[in-house]
Amino acid sequence: MIDLWHQLLQGFLTAGTPANLLWALLGCTLGTAVGVLPGIGPATAVAMLLPITSKVDPTASMIFFAGIYYGAMYGGSTTSILLNTPGESGSMVTAMEGNKMAKNGRAGAALATAAIGSFVAGTIATVLVTLFAPLVAAFAIKLGPPEYFMLMVLAFTTVSAVLGKSTLRGMAALAVGLAMGLIGIDQISGQARYTGGVPELMDGIEVVLIAVGLFAVGEALYMVLYEGKTVETQNPMSKVHMTPAEWKRSWPAWLRATAIGFPFGTIPAGGSEIPTFLSYAAEKKLSKHKHEFGTTGAIEGVAGPEAANNAAITATLIPLLTLGIPTSNTTAILLGAFQNYGIQPGPQLFDSNAALVWALIASLYIGNVMLLILNLPLVGMWVKLLKIPKPYLYAGILIFATVGVYGMRQSAFDLVLLYAIGLLGVVMRRFDFPTAPVVVGMILGPLAEAQMRNALSIGEGRWTVFLQRPGSLALLIVIVAVLVMPHFLRMRRPKT
Amino acid sequence: MKGLRDPELAIGVGAALIGAGLAAGATQISSEAGYSGVGPNFLPWVVGAMLALCGVLLVREALTGGYREREEPSGAATGHWAGFAWVSAGVLVNAALITTIGFILSCSLCFVLAVRGFKSAEGRLDLRPRAWLVDAAVGFAIAAPVYWMFTQLLAINLPGLTASGWL
């Protein structure tokens, strides 16, 4: 415990240097802007800025990226409350009640409970990360390749099969991501795979290219094709303020939501859609003001999902840092950032890069305070961003996409590939294929393959190695359960 | 009854073909296994088979009433292809010219073309010279600071028209 305290203090000292504070502030500001602006999310923003990893030191850039990741969650709620189109998928639920409140002249209260709730949940979740991440790392260090491989398969399964509506479309997306991850030199044997003799493909495809292509270019192309005529209306602003009664209704919702959101973030089932929906359902059930839900807008319906979202987002850092397993688009890109520095997140990270990890965790505490200030008194400034004309916004995003992709490898070939991935993004969005499995599959695929081949080496080539070790057997059972359970439940339930 | 022009069917067929292609490619990869019993061609086979199977199942869903539980896509029912052509031109022209005319000019050009596309999607395509100039100026005002931030502040290489690092 003393040790933990000491390390956290060291982290604060590192994160508290003027330069690092500036990076954190820059990240939080940029993140909020990205969250507020439609058409660009945290995953895209971090991906576009990945080229800076070649020049900026790891601690500073991880603090910067974490600020963006966090900031986007705060900013996203502003957009989903004020506009009738949600920005982030995690704030879709916020939009349901938030919009109703805003239409009834209570935008200010909704914004306040969203920002303060995000702060409360984010801070509690950061405390939990501080306490539990070292424990998980200490446990994870005992895991061998078979267990790691099974954990990664579990991550694949949950991201592609459980989160989306259709297991089939999720699996198809995962296969596409895994296929992209195959391109390039095989890590173990040094063999070139699927390069077709194109020298640019020897080093594989950059995750930046895939993320920016799917999200930024894909979004821009989708916009021009289908959404040019979509008219957005903006709800009127009101003073950012909560009455004592509203405080009293928000508190329990924030705490309950943190309890719901955090566990969902830690298990490799990522995504904040499920916890936000669960929190919304819980608040609706427990509320004494049920008649306000869906009519005039209930403040619990904003407070809960927003807090759940932030708690889950923070908790995703546990599997990322301690196991090296990303469970969302953004954490997959953060993993890419670590890899650019030659750092492989995992249990050893807490020993080998202790200073970096603790500075990152400390910066989360600092970032939450910064974001509260950026989002409460200064919310008016962000609302102005919503006035940027769409054509300029999306055309500008294309410029930033170019910087991110070209800056990474200085290759014009990558820009053509970027366009192709953008087309894929349009098709996937139009036909309701999830995109997270593509990004997670592409970045985790090569790691999983290496673990699998190492595991088989341990088992002297026999697949039974996955059954003989209790850890990997238990994980295998969980994977099967996760795959089978939803279908089983559906069959049991009589058709309505 | 939707015929072969059904895009859902086309996607399924496409996925199946790519899966088959991956599997065909896997035959070209060595199976040298070393100690582990599976070589570098193992995962390619698995992924190829997985994608091909998904493709076949997608085809089946498409033929038997469409994709299951597919959410209604947002926006218009038909695509605005003229605007799409403008934006595509912007992105591809940028890819073609970035190394010769430099980041700032190439991105400004991409910006101008893309803005034409987005505006035409909104039904207010403006081809007057004045609008071109204004948009070019806006594009320049976005691209130039980004370029300077990367080349001057972060010392990351981006192509320029000159070697000065300013244009």
What does this structure look like?
The complex is a heterodimer of chains A (496) and B (167). Chain A has one domain (2-492). Chain A is mainly alpha-helical and 496 residues long. The longest helix of chain A is centred in the N-terminal third of the chain and has 34 residues, at 107-140. Chain A is 72% helix and 1% strand. In chain A, α4 (58-82) runs antiparallel to α14, α6 (107-140) packs parallel to α12 (300-315) and α9 packs antiparallel against α18. In chain B, 64% of the residues lie in helices and 0% in strands. The model of chain B has no long low-confidence stretch (mean pLDDT 89). Chain B is flat. Chain B has helices at 7-26, 42-63, 81-101, 103-121, 129-153. In chain B, α1 (7-26) runs antiparallel to α2 (42-63), α3 packs antiparallel against α4 and α4 (103-121) crosses α5. Chain B has 167 residues and is mostly helical. Classes of the chains: A mainly alpha (496), B mainly alpha (167). Chains A and B meet through α8, α9, α18, α19 and α20 of A and α1, α2, α3, α4 and α5 of B.
Report the portion of residues of chain B in β strands. under 5%
Number of strands of chain B: 0
Structural class by SSE content of chain B = mainly alpha
Low-confidence stretches of chain B: none
Enumerate the strands of the largest sheet of chain A in spatial order, edge to edge or round the barrel: 1-2
- The string of secondary-structure elements of chain A, in order, is HHHHHHHHEEHHHHHHHHHHHHHH
The dominant shape of chain B is: flat
Beta-strand content estimate of chain A: under 5%
What's the mean pLDDT score of chain A?
Answer: 88
Total helices of chain A: the number is 22
Order of helices and strands of chain B: HHHHH
Give the overall average pLDDT of chain B: 89
| Biggest interface found | A-B, 71 and 81 residues
For the termini of chain A, the CA-CA separation is: 54 Å
Helix content of chain A: over 70%
How many separate structural domains of chain B?
Answer: 2
- Spans of chain A of at least 5 consecutive residues whose pLDDT stays below 50 are none
Q: Could you give a short account of the major beta sheet of chain A? A: 2 strands, antiparallel
Could you tell me the radius of gyration of chain A in angstroms?
22 Å
Distance between the termini of chain B: 57 Å
Count of alpha/pi helices of chain B: 5
